[in-house]
Amino acid sequence: MNDQRPWWRPDGFLLYAIIYLTFIYLPVLFLPLFSFNSSKYIAFPLKSFTLKWYHQMVNSPSMLEALLNSVKVGLIVAIVSTILGLLAAKALTRYRLPGRGSVISFIMIPLVIPEIILAISLLILISQLDIPLSLWTVGFSHSLLCTPFAMLVLISRMEGFDNSLEEAALDLGENGWMTFWRVTFPIVLPGIVASLLLTFTISFDEFVLAFFLSSTDATLPIYIWSSLRFPTKIPAVLALGSSIFVISFFVVSFAEWLRRRGIKLESTSGI
Amino acid sequence: MKTSSTTAPHHNSGISLARLFQTSEAVRGYTLLSPTLLALLLGLAMPLAVLFTLSFWIQDYLDFIRTFSLKNYIDFFQKPIYGKILIKSIRMSGLVTLATVLLAYPMAYFIAFRIQHNKLIWLILITVPFWTSYLLRVFAWKLMLGYNGVINSGLKTLGFISEPLEFLLYNPAAVMITLAHAWAAFAILPIYVSLEKIDRSLLEAARDLGENAFITFVRVTLPLSLPGVIAASLLVFIPTVGDYVTPSLVGGPSGIMIGNIIQSMFGKALNWPLGAAISVISMLTVALMISLFLWGTQSFRRKVA
Amino acid sequence: MDKSIISFSKVSKRFGTVTAVDQASFDISQGEFFSLLGPSGCGKTTLLRIVAGFETPTEGEILIDGQPMSATPPNKRPVNMVFQNYAIFPHLDVRGNIAFGMRKSGLTKTDLNKRIDEVLELIKLPGYGSRGSNELSGGQRQRVALARALIKQPKVLLLDEPLGALDKKLREQMQIELRQLQQQLGITFLFVTHDQEEALTLSDRIAVMSEGEVIEIATPAELYESPSSRFVADFIGSMNFFEGEVVDSKARNTTVTSELLGTIVASEVEQEFSSGTPVWIAIRPEKLQPQFESPENQAGYLEGRMGPSAYLGDRSHFYVHIDHRDEPVLVALQNLERSLGGISRPNQPVWLTWSPDALVVLSRN
Q1: For chain C, what is the domain count?
Q2: In the complex, which subunits touch A with 3 or more CB pairs below 8 angstroms?
Q3: In chain A, what are the helix, strand and coil shares in percent, each to the nearest 5?
């Protein structure tokens, strides 16, 4: 509205915002705290500062393998679901399609079904087809889950897309594929990057589908889940959680930096 | 100048595939859509169909009796425990949804209307805690509420209690607090987006037409942000109603939800067909609840307008 | 007749039940500045997009430079387009935009850069090559869109309301530049506009369209001075219409009779009418001369009272009330002197006269 009050002006709203942020931050901040606590029991009072859990973390092959598995699955899922989302988003924003509404609803179904039901349905199908459970089945289920997210992100990027840009490229002599490559792709690129990041993150953190659809190869959430039953393993898991948090902070900052730099580059690049 | 005679046959030469492709937007659109649709047909429609079929079979040790039977559905309605837990789950996630959305709305409003510059920074600030693994975030509440947890230690240090409180953890309330925390960002973002989209001149117009700030909020801002509120509610309600991670970790025996039941049917209890039937019933119930909710919000919007 | 560069033969385009273009058949000559003029939704843009290849005609065929186009996709056609919103590629700078279509030109990088510099010179944006697309004003975007198409040396340049988004001053300046550019390069321009003044200023010939149909194709002067239908007469400029009937028509002189005008003679009428034909007698506002004394020795005149007036700077519009006519008659006068000489006193009796060749006679059927 037209009120030009600075946001830090003390009033009920600001107080509320502070309390709310405390609520969402406070529990999470205890996780790194205990990753530096020398006691192996996750409880107060704190003992002394230590890095031994980080040491244990890098020396735990099963944890690192789970991490690697999650990264592998996440990368494949990000690429597959972004491609599927891109195709759908392109078709839905570019063409007047009969039945557009039902197509969108259909693609959205994974978002409106509780994950556990998606998981067991896939489990039943896969077992009936005698397909062995593996990281591939996890990846397939994650791709299904992530495709609607990818599509939503890409649709919002493409909705404002001016179709005459593609027509201009055709008019200037490029065929359909080159038009995509030289015009559509670079313009939609920020959306593609956002979609890759989002779908990777979802897959990386996904537990339910992975729990039902993996066999002996654990992903990281499965490893964490099993560790939570063994108190002695928890500090190292907290160390890993804290490390991932810091890494993702840098990845997002780097992506943002790239994006800003990209905006500048766009304006000066030639052909 | 006559030119038509030489070129007329071109149009009568029948519908070649290439020409159909060039002219029909629908054909081109669906061609582009086909990989996505195929993947979803394979990975979504088929499994759900199989789930539905299985719910009419019967478990026979490690195999299934593949003849049509209503046994699982009859079991569900004969043993009140399943229905009770389903209703409890819906009530719990309903409350979680309500709390999450009510708590998120003022925060989203604050970012949308009070923050003038760098809104993105605030949005990132909101999402940062959620970069931690979901399991660890749930675990964090065990830390908060546990026997030697943050709250007990704090209260003890301050001298309010001499012995740790045991009722904090392992109950439905702990599940609901944890869920409300875990899904906060999913409520804030859609509400924020819908508030941000509101044309500020509409609010000025309402004030100009003589409404005070509160009535303006009720008659203009709230109805216009309703799509965001609906999206937020669904984004929180649907995943929480089927969750079994949180109840397993912080719920204790009294805090279990329908997800735990389904999971056990595919694990320890080993009765897939019954699990499938419970899933089907849960899905239908959730769908019914959502329809009721959407119908309710529709009539609310009509009443306000 | 000059060599035809585009030839439409019975081109129709239907979207479902809507006919956007209905049986268009005409030719555009090499080097012509040809405009498609009509109100929005008349099908002019559809026709242009059919030439570009973005729409496929439902019926009929288009020849560009003698070649049938129905099987040729847009990227293979020897035409280029300046889009209504310019469609400047946002991720490329000016040089990148202009070079876009030259990927397969076979020019070396140095030659291509030289070409681009020449084109930038041509569109009066020298030194703008490294400007980002978001650093350009509306007029500059328009020039870049023009350059991007012209560097391809198309046989026909298609322009889809390219000046619509510009303000009036800039639009007039661009009109002059466009016309000069077209004459300098000798390329055929096919120009779509809804602005009749713009079409008159720029074009060698204009096709007036309405509801998918091409109503009339003629030079600007022909369209303005002797339109062939009431629609064209009304759409281009302002016109006063009177109902009448033909008494006699011979040797370009047509005698008509009308309740308000009496029996008068229109000279320089191209069409011959049989007597008794119901017609519109039409006259342009600037061809009516107001007098404040009763004209004695005049064949035809209109008597009325001064109504409201509008001062437009270079000229003024007066509305004259005539008895037994609902609509006032519009009179336009050049403001040759600074003072209006008090001629606009309300209700002042006024007599309107004209010369016989100012009258246009149009069939009322």
Answers
A1: 2
A2: B, C
A3: 75, 0, 25
**C-alpha distance from residue C267 to each of C219, C292, C303, C356 (Å):** 21, 26, 22, 5
Residue of chain A whose Cα is closest to the Cα of B49: A121
- Which CATH number applies to A67-220? 1.10.3720.10
Residues C27 and C151 placed together within one structural domain of the fold:
yes
Residues C184, C316: one domain?
A: no
Return the amino acid letter for B40.
L
Are C69 and C240 in contact, with CB atoms under 8 Å apart?
A: no
Residues C242 and C218 placed together within one structural domain of the fold: no
Sequence spans of domains, chain A: 67-220, 228-271
Q: What is the pLDDT of residues C203-247, one digit of tens each?
A: 999 999 999 999 999 999 999 998 989 999 999 989 999 999 999
Looking at the structure, do residues C127 and C257 belong to the same domain, yes or no? no
The domain containing residue C206 runs over which residues?
A: 4-231
Tokens 């209690």: give the residue.
Answer: B161
Does C41 share its domain with C17? yes
Catalogue all structural domains in chain B, each as residue range(s) with its CATH number. 4-54 (no CATH), 71-304 (1.10.3720.10)
> Which pLDDT band holds residue A209 (cuts at 50, 70, 90)?
very high
Residue C22: CATH number of its domain: 3.40.50.300
Sheet order of strands, C360-363 included: C262-266, C253-258, C240-250, C278-283, C360-363
pLDDT of residue A269: 41
Nearest-Cα residue of chain C relative to residue B3? C9
* Model confidence pLDDT, tens digit, residues C160-169: 999 988 888 8
Give the number of other CB atoms < 10 A from CB of residue A174.
22
Each residue's pLDDT tens digit, C304-337: 998 888 888 888 888 999 988 888 999 998 887 7
Residue pair C95/A268 in contact (Cβ under 8 Å)? The answer is no
Last residue of a domain, one of C175, C209, C231: C231
Q: Are the Cβ atoms of A7 and B115 closer than 8 angstroms?
A: yes
CA distance C236 to C195: 9
* Rounded-to-integer distance, Cα B80 and Cα B76, Å: 7
Over the range B97-132, which residues count as b (16 or more CB within 10 Å of their CB) and which as e?
A: bebbbebbbebbbbbbbbbeeeeeebbeebbbbbbb
Claim to verify: residue C95 and residue C20 sit in the same structural domain: yes
DSSP-H helix ranges across A159-233: 163-171, 176-179, 185-205, 208-213, 220-227
For residue C358, what is the domain's CATH number? 2.40.50.100
Closest CA to B54 of A140, A129, A128: A128
Asked if residue C223 and residue C303 are part of one domain, the reply reads: no
Smallest Cα–Cα separation from B236: which of B97, B94, B90? Answer: B97
In Å, what is the CA distance from B232 to each residue of B115, B194, C247, C328?
A: 21, 10, 78, 62
In the block, which residue shows the tokens 């930038």?
C120
| Torsion angle in degrees (nearest 10) through CA of B104, B106, B109, B110 | -110
CA atoms within 13 A on the CB side of B63: 3
| Same domain flag for C219 and C255 | no
Q: Do the Cβ atoms of A172 and C100 come within 8 Å?
A: yes
Indicate the residue of C1, C27, C61 with minimum beta-carbon distance to B7.
C61
Q: Give the angle subtended at the CA of C7 by the CAs of C6 and C9, to the nearest 5°.
A: 150
User: What contacts 24+ positions apart, CB below 8 Å, involve B73-81?
Assistant: B73/B277, B73/B281, B75/B274, B75/B277, B76/B274, B76/B277, B76/B278, B76/B281
Owner of token pair 């049989």: C274
Of C182, C204, C231, the last residue of a domain is C231
CA A116 to chain B, closest CA, distance in angstroms equals 6
Under the banding of pLDDT at 50, 70 and 90, the label for residue A271 is very low
Q: Which of B50, B54, B239 minimises the CB distance to A114?
A: B239
